[in-house]
Every structure is written in structure tokens, then in C-alpha cells.
Amino acid sequence: MHELILHHYPTSPFAEKARLLLGFKQLSWRSVLIPPVMPKPDLTALTGGYRRTPVLQVGADVYCDTALIARRLEAEKATPELFPEGQEFNVAVLAAWADSVLFLTAVSLVFQPESMALRFANVPKELVETFGKDRAQLFSNGSVSRVSLAQAKNDWPTYMARLQQQLARSEGEFLFGAAPSLADFAVAHCLWFLRATPVTAPLVDDYPDIRAWLGKVLGVGHGSFSELPAEQALQIAREATPAALPDEPFAEPNGFAQGQRVVIRAVDYGSDPVEGELLFAGSEELILRREDARAGVVHVHFPRLGYRIEAC
User: Is the backbone peptide bond immediately before 124 cis, with ω within 30 degrees of 0?
Assistant: First the structure.
């Protein structure tokens, strides 16, 4: 049984989502801190080039994207449920909306000049410039562009009103009942991001019901964790054997064959290519086999939704 290892950095919103998922599941995990900007040589030794944060490592299996990390944690520990029975579709769809539309809107609001001035008040100018160039590169090859600040300000009240309505109509204190689901954590990490400075915090705090709900979601904490040096995480991968493939038929509608060398990349942003041998294509997951001098043989896992396969 391998430890759960999260590769992340403290201020990443999606890393906060993953940390909350681990806390909700009451799981113990190891923490590997990574740089917030490229290069990330220890991380990409595991992923083959995927640069987004966070990444979950379990032995020689590497899970990219919190949408898939959530499903891996559900397999690790079935209860409490991230996908409540009878609400699986609703939860997954709302979580996907939050991770894309709501998140990109929050990014635009957080990155407005007044907010960024506070966030980077004590950061050297050259590091601020490096961060800006890195984030511009993140969006350079994907299918989405940043939401304009004017559009983000226009849309935000509608999103918050709809969330308030969902909370009011729910048969419990959370979006889909008496306990949090993946949808709660997907929405919460966007709002957590906004509350980082007094410029954007009122966009959450001016809605008392949402503020109270957010406090309950964040209150699950991050579980029990301890620090792990990146080199040790790579050694763990080198010395481990990847887990058996899922017991599900290989299904690839675009004609890619099992064992074929391919590239997988994100569609929206951070679309750095990862090359390897296509081992598995299922309803929710794609798996590449790749080999690295530092990490050894690893299986890199991606969600099917939001990613595409290309010929090498």
C-alpha cells in the first residue's frame, strides 16, 4: 500500500481543492512543495511535461487534474462520498462548471490591478514579472482565453445568486444535501481564492449564506500530512511498480490503439504535451506509460474530459 503524495504549493486554488478533498476523506498524506512557476523539474520528471498544480502520486502512478484526483480518492476511501448516490451526474456537472467557468471568472477578478498589488506587495519586482510571463504562457496554447475584468464583474452577481438559490433549495446545509460533495469543494476553492485580499473578499463575504456555507466546507481541513522532499518522492516512484490497469474495456473512439505511442494534453490551458504509450482509455480516464531517468517507469493518469489524444 503506497502513501498518497500531493505535489502542490500553498497559494494554488486547485491545490486547496485537493487538500480539502484529502481532509474530507480523513486521509493521511505526504506533502511535496513545488514551484508556482516553471521550470518544475521534479514534477515534470513524474508527469512527462504536465505542469498544472496539483498532482497526486501513489507509488508509480501519477494522477493529473483534480477532477481525476477526486475519483482516485473516492476509490481510496469510499466514505464519506464525494459523489452521493443518485446525484453523481449533478455533482460532476456542477463541479466541472466551477472548475472552468467559475474559476476563470475568479482568476480575472483576483488578477485585477488593485488585488494583485496587495497579493504581491512584498514580492520582488523581478519575481512578479516572472509570474506574469508564466501565467501568460499557461494560456498560450489552449482553447480558452482569459475572461475580461468587465465581463467577470458583470457575471459574478448572477453566479452568486444561483449558488444562493441552490443552497436554499437543498435538503441540507450543502449544495446537494446534508454533507459536502465534490461540487462543494469545486466551488469553494474558487471563493477561497477570492478571499485572499480585501479587494476581492467582499465578492464572497457580501453574501452571508454563501459565507456561512464556505466556512463549513473549509472547516473540513486538510487531513493529516507531513513534508516529503521531492527527491524521495521520485525514489518512491522508481522503486514502485504501477498498479494494475482498471477492469474496464479499452474504448478509444478516434481509433488510437492500445500500446500506441501518443501525446495527451489538456484542451483548455496548460496544454503541455505528455508523450507515452497509451495503455488505457476508459469512460473517465486515460493512462500513459512512460519512462524517466529519475522517476523510472510510471503510469500517468488523465481525465478523459478536457484532454485530447494526438498521434506522435
Answer: no
Q: Which three cell numbers stand for residue 249?
A: 474495456
* pLDDT value of position 208: 96
For residue range 159-187, list pLDDT tens digits in order: 999 999 999 999 999 999 999 999 999 99
Which pTM value belongs to this model?
0.97
Residue 12 cell numbers, joined: 494554488
**Is residue 121 within 8 Å of residue 207, measured between CB atoms?**
no
Residue ranges of the domains in the chain? 97-218
Instruction: Specify burial of residue 158 (Cβ count, 10 A radius: 0-12, 13-18, 19+).
Output: exposed
Scored b (16 or more CB within 10 A) or e, 117-156 reads: eebeeeeeeeeeeebeeebeebbeeeeeebbeeeebeebb
259/303 Cα distance (integer angstroms): 18
Closest listed residue to residue 181, CA positions, set 194, 172, 193: 172
Contacts 24+ apart (CB under 8 A), 112-118: 112/149, 112/199, 112/200, 114/199, 115/197, 115/199, 115/200, 118/197, 118/198, 118/199
Nearest CA-CA partner of 246 in 97, 106, 61:
61
**pLDDT given at position 144:** 87
Question: What's 97-218's CATH class?
Answer: mainly alpha
User: What are 38's three cell numbers?
Assistant: 516553471
Cis geometry, peptide bond prior to residue 80 (ω within 30 degrees of 0) = yes
Q: Using CA atoms, how far apart are residues 262 and 283, in angstroms rounded to an integer? A: 18
pLDDT-above-70 percentage for the chain: 100
